[in-house]
Amino acid sequence: MTVITRFAPSPTGMLHIGGARTALFNWCYAKKTGGKFLLRIEDTDKERSTKEAIEAIFRDLKWLGLDWDGDATVYQSARAARHAEVAHELVKRGRAYFCYCTPEELEAMKAEAQAKGEQPRYNRMWRDRNPSEAPAGVKPVIRIKAPIDGDTVIEDAVQGRVTVPNSQLDDFILLRSDGSPTYMHAVVVDDADMGITHVIRGDDHLNNAFRQKIIFDAMGWPVPVFGHVPLIHGADGAKLSKRHGAQSVGEFKDMGYLPEAVCNYLLRLGWSHGDDELFTKEQAAEWFDVNDINAGPSRLDMKKLDHVNTHYMRLADDTRLAEEVITRNSLKIDETHKARLLAGIHDLKSRAATLVQLTSEAKFYLVDEVAYDEKAAAALNDHDAHHAMHHIYDALARLGADFTETAIDTACRHIAEHVYAGKLAKVMMPLRAAICGTTTSPPLFKAMEILGQAEVMKRLKAALHWMHDHGHHHH
Questions:
Q1: Coil, strand, or helix at residue 150?
Q2: Residue 66, helix vs strand vs coil
Q3: Is 303 a catalytic residue?
Q4: Which of 55, 108, 186, 380 has a CA between 20 and 30 Å from the CA of residue 16?
Q5: What mean pLDDT is predicted for residues 298-314?
Q6: Which of 227, 222, 216 is nearest to 146 (CA)?
């Protein structure tokens, strides 16, 4: 048997990280078993499904590196005729029936049940009636003949054996009076036609699984293996919601997380392989088994995600990171800027937890005029700093063609030694502020070599002017 899994999102909004994790589990299991991973868009809710949301799902899945098999994505909405055909087939087989209840009759049933303190449920009045008694002018729905006695049992790969008494299941609708299928029914027909062998999805679908099994059984179709995965919770243990901040794949992307970090992190939420914390989705696929998914909910931990992302930032290709920084910038960036960035990114990437942070820390390579942040301004607005800056300016101006990290290092240490009793910070603080506009930076002398002498001298001159205007004159 070839394993065939699927991811079946509803395109009513962004791709939620819970959905992304479900997609990852399905992808891993298909890869592990040499099977197939298919994509189906459950767009039967016409009002709420949008083309933008469908595009966003494709974009986010591709960003995560989740390639699906098959020539085409299956759109549930395009299969309504097939869904109807199966519903009518079930009527022929005596496993479903036409129900001619009017909305008023259904309302009355509901009121009666509530008066008795019971769950409002259809009372099966048309289950065994002859359709020849049908009232004129009522378009019927088609309802399944759900089993009345006993239990429905699901051997869930994640939750274990789950049982529901059939007295709790009603003769639910398969086909509405306008001929359109219900979601419950469409899912089963699609899974059967696509040959899905394993349905791995959020445990918010567990209740649906009992009803869906009834349709599989009625058609004599093999029931797929179900694996219902607990939902992701916020750090406080409550179900993930707006107040927990980011919840969609797109938001994590915007916040500067790398796709390989998001994959690694999401796979570790609710699934593990020994003590391994850092692994690619390809490694995970080698180890993966549906039965290893935890039955308890997992918690989103942003600190852990930062840690995982920092690891992948260090591993990431310099050119790729430079492109990311450029894409995230509003500055005008020319070839000179690009060359500096590419040369400097290697030292920057080991310091940044996210692409947003990397972009901010790379800014000094891309600007034509350095703006000083509060700490940098304080470092420059100081009598000693002004004094040091003159020494630095003169020493670096003399370097000429030998403007290398080593030469700059020697020159700055020489000043510290002779003027400040060996206190290198006296030289480094104002120098860093002048070059970067901040009080932290990657290895500074290397960065200065990358910027080149002309640019460095220009920035030192600008700093001297700024100091002059801000009152600390050199006496």
A1: coil
A2: coil
A3: no
A4: 186
A5: 94
A6: 216
- Give residue 146's Cα distance to chain centre: 38
With a cut of 70, say whether residue 244 has pLDDT above it: no
Contact 50, 11 (CB under 8 A): yes
Given a cut of 70, is residue 52 above it in pLDDT? yes
Encoding tokens for residue 294? 């935890």
Whether pLDDT at 93 is above 60: yes
- The pTM for the full model equals 0.91
> What average pLDDT does range 229-242 have in this prediction?
82
Report CA torsion sign: 281, 287, 292, 294.
negative
Q: How far apart are CA 367 and CA 362, in angstroms?
A: 9
Annotated catalytic residue: which of 51, 242, 303, 332?
242
Contacts 24+ apart (CB under 8 A), 451-458: 451/340, 451/365, 452/403, 453/396, 453/399, 453/400, 453/403, 456/396, 456/403, 457/393, 457/396, 457/397
Length of the chain equals 475
Which residue, chain included where needed, has tokens 């699901």? 154
4-71+185-232 sits in which CATH class? alpha beta
Q: Which CATH class is domain 80-175?
A: alpha beta
Please tell me the distance from the alpha carbon of residue 5 to that of residue 219, in angstroms, as a whole number: 21
Domain spans, the chain: 4-71+185-232, 80-175, 318-366, 374-469
Q: Which CATH architecture group holds 374-469?
A: Orthogonal Bundle (1.10)
Q: Which residue has the tokens 């970090």?
A: 261
For residue 113, the model assigns a pLDDT of 82
Between residues 113 and 340, which one has the greater pLDDT?
Answer: 340
Confidence of residue 475 (pLDDT cuts 50, 70, 90): very low
